[in-house]
Amino acid sequence: MADLLLDAGALLGESPRWHAAEARLYWVDIDAHRIHRTDPETGATETMQLDGPVGCVAPRARGGLVMGLKNGCAVIDAWGEAPRPFGPAVLAGIPEQRFNDGCVDAAGRFWVGSVTSDKANPAAMLFRLDPYGEITPMVGGLLTSNGAAFSPDGRTFYHADTPTHALRAYDVDPATGELGEDRLFHQFEPGAGRPDGGTVDAEGCYWSALWDGWRVVRLSPTGELLQTVELPVQRPSMIALGGADLRTAFVTSAGKNLTDEDRKAQPHAGGLFTFRVDVPGMVQPGFAG
């Protein structure tokens, strides 16, 4: 069972990213339009308030952050600065979409996908933002782009369209960032949780947070279920591995749209949870833009 690190009360906690150099965990509350920076030793948390939803963040190699916002991507050079657009606003004029989940590959490219509120129209997409500002559509026909992560050798890309209950694995050329063939990596049973955000550890195993599943799971490189960690909240949203030895798991969660009964059963919904793992994570590369 995981422990509560921070009773954050987030509406839609997401995108935990461990910043090794700062020994801080960055994460967002999408619906509250906030970016948080937490010291896991003390729980002390700094907050940046934005004027719109922030789907995901990742550290930049030169300092600051890259982020997926409502209409496009943005960067900051230092904590507390106002985000400035980076690359084209590819979602501008599409009110039912915003950016959601994202990650950085070893070449410093930002892979970021969108989510659509129009669930009858699978029009969301996964994009690749290159360091010089070009943004390229990579996968289309999605409802909720999620779970983006790379294998340790950079040759496999993991991704989920959450409502399908499926995780898929793509061949990828680490040099060019081009995707090849995809395959079903793991299919979760309907009604038992849907794959949301994920990460990969040093053994190449994939950790997935299961929305409406009350748990996170660890899958082998072939998609076999290896481990389950129960959580005291219904909607864990994403997992990151960090800490000084990269063996601390951090899990965000969501507290919105819960009934009074739900809140009694999970008073810490929207909290930030933690537990220890046997296999460390990997230091995440920074966005090169």
TrEMBL record:
SUPFAM superfamilies: Calcium-dependent phosphotriesterase (SSF63829). InterPro entries: 6-blade_b-propeller_TolB-like, SGL, SMP-30. Residues 12-254 form the SMP-30/Gluconolactonase/LRE-like region domain. It comes from the Bacteria. PANTHER family: REGUCALCIN. Belongs to the SMP-30/CGR1 family. This is SMP-30/Gluconolactonase/LRE-like region domain-containing protein. It comes from Sphingopyxis soli.
